């Protein structure tokens, strides 16, 4: 009789959990970091990220320049894997804000600028370096007018050089405008993740949570010349008279030897109707929506065109030929075999082992891994889980996904190997090669680029400790999982060919034009679906813009997969029709050749759109990262095309009844 009471107890417990879950779901939000409310007068300190430039693409530490240091010393913020790889170095700063208190404060006066200080400041100014400041996880934003158009930027320049002068002037006075929203803590429960950790505002904390939340952070940079004798008498955070940005060059702070630079700032708090969940909208304004739609419509036109060709191949050609072939009796089939032409003649050679089968299996395995990583990452980003507030999370997520998808890479690569060879002998070697092929290429390129970054003393250089972490992740997670996937691939039943392979290979008829010309030309169709979105991606990477139209990117990715599959199938059928049974590698590169056009477009972007990029070091970095991207695209698109063509050929010849 104890069972009913136990059952009731379990039911009550389950209902209690359901009630708690439903209560928690009332205000669930995943913005990237949990909301922080500040009481009036509460101190908030801004943080500073690495100095960045669209001219050099070499990030440097904020404190590599003679700026004011925090009273308690420089403290680095905890950084994730993605932030370290991206060259972010977030430190504390002396800029102090008191919630809802407007004030004008003095920071410090530097010692006399040395020759090295002047040289460094001038170089950073002329290379258009930006200071990236962060308050409550929001980057500082500034607005400029160019030809009557209001342009939005993140960060502010180190200095500026007037057109009518050869002198450089340092930005030493900042006018901050902090937008705040009054939060009363009514009926909202917030659960979030981010660099601050996890936070929950419960019923008991609602009264404590009442206060102000920061929803905007703007800066107006100025250069102001102060009298160093007067300023050195002040202490940090002493109140000073508010000043405007001087219009005359003579009132600005020149960068010159033996000059002493005084740093000050103004803070103005402005109440705003913007709510905390919407505060990133100002940074993620989607511009050029029509261009994205044009890209999608262009891709759809290509897809329908190719789909029409595939439709014709299947319904008008293949089905008709197979129906005729199956209706004939054996004598008529034998007579017909002598008169056959096209793909039906290569029935005894179509599944002949390709050249370099191991390399093909390795590239297909790595392609599966990269494609899976890209699809899952973009889906999660499109659903809003990859918030820009969580810096480095996108790259961190991609790396972790790639590591764990090693099991899929090993399985597909080894199963393809056993299918081609008819035996699982050598599967360990294939698995090891899959685990080391693409990561090895990336490792070699990154190491070469890292020596360049080390030589430039840039924060973009990967620290030696991070190298060991990456190697540990590679050999302790990716390699074992790839070997496990390979083992599962040997246990799976190999794909059986529908026809036997002749002992003597059939001679391939000579053609007027080389087959690789058609393969290279096929890559233009997938590139046509990709290149518009590629422009926005390159702009976000190299021009310091936020890219957050992952919904469009997901649609473009799906269209790209369809186009790659269709292009490869059409090209494979064309080769079989001219009695070319060596289709394996051609099917891979028919869609994989899009990578060549991506790399050429990257060079075009460097020459015509990144004209500000200066120096061989910056160009080498750009080309190195572009090469990694091109190799990844080649493996991914090539794998999509090859696997589609393989199953197309298998289906095509499984319908042929031949003795």
TrEMBL record:
Membrane topology, from the record: Multi-pass membrane protein
UniProt-annotated location(s): Endosome membrane; Golgi apparatus membrane
Pfam families (alphabetical): EMP70 (PF02990)
Keyword Transmembrane helix: yes
InterPro entries reported for this sequence: EMP70
This protein's GO CC annotations: endosome membrane; Golgi membrane
GO aspect biological process, one term: protein localization to membrane
Keyword field: Endosome, Golgi apparatus, Membrane, Signal, Transmembrane, Transmembrane helix
Top-level division of the source organism's lineage: Eukaryota
Chain ranges passing through the membrane: 293-315, 359-386, 392-414, 434-454, 466-486, 516-542, 548-571, 583-603, 623-649
Protein family membership: Belongs to the nonaspanin (TM9SF) (TC 9.A.2) family.
PANTHER family from the UniProt entry: TRANSMEMBRANE 9 SUPERFAMILY MEMBER 12, TRANSMEMBRANE 9 SUPERFAMILY PROTEIN
Listed name of the protein: Transmembrane 9 superfamily member
Biological source species: Salvia splendens
